[in-house]
Amino acid sequence: MSIAENIPENIAAVRQTIAQAAIAVGRVADDVQLLAVSKTFGPDAVIAAAHAGQDAFGENYLQEALDKMQAVRTQRPDLKLTWHFIGPIQSNKTRAIAEHFDWVHSVDREKIAQRLSDQRPESLPPLNLCLQVNVSGEASKSGIAPGELLPLARAVAEMPRLRLRGLMAIPEPAESLEAQRQPFRQLRELQSQLAAQGIVTDTLSMGMSADMEAAIAEGATIVRVGTAIFGKRDYAK
Ligand SMILES: *Cc1c(COP(=O)(O)O)cnc(C)c1O
Fold first, then answer.
1. What's the pTM?
2. Spatial separation of the C-alpha atoms in residues 10 and 25, rounded to whole Å
């Protein structure tokens, strides 16, 4: 009854959904990267997904992620995986994030970006970074307000050890496809506005298990999918 047994089938189904959603709006399936959100699932789940061809993983909780990376590396040193940090970031966590991750999606303050840049080891390429935006209708306290995005993006774009890749959002759940699309459209428009100011980026990190099709319709280049791949999360464990 292990959920891990279904991981290859689930990944195939998600890839199919992504491809159909992309083709439906005249996009190419390969332009949408699948980020497998493995939080609360163990190294075995990551390895099972890797066997199904998945190489990018998203994590929210630093210590859990570091333990998991270590376990995966020990069991399968041959796997070449990339790790994306997608959770809220406290200042005292920036060093470990800068040292162990390839991407960070959840930066919404200049101070955090500055620390990540200062702490990114010279031996590694610049840290890929998305700014998290609090798009309309979001109750969460995470994410910078759209009106404050431009000065933050300007500052981050100048930081030597960061590579500003784009924007990320986690909209409130909505039922209809049209309602789901609205905040994703807003994020895409913000990216265009940055480009018009000379800050050109290539990434829109948006869409999760319940709304990836809406996000792809609005231009998502990375969808962050947990439940549809690994099953329901059990936070009580
Ligand atoms: C947990 C999480 C996801 C995955 O959500 P699912 O609904 O399980 O697909 C995506 N993005 C972020 C930021 C998350 O915290």
1. 0.96
2. 23
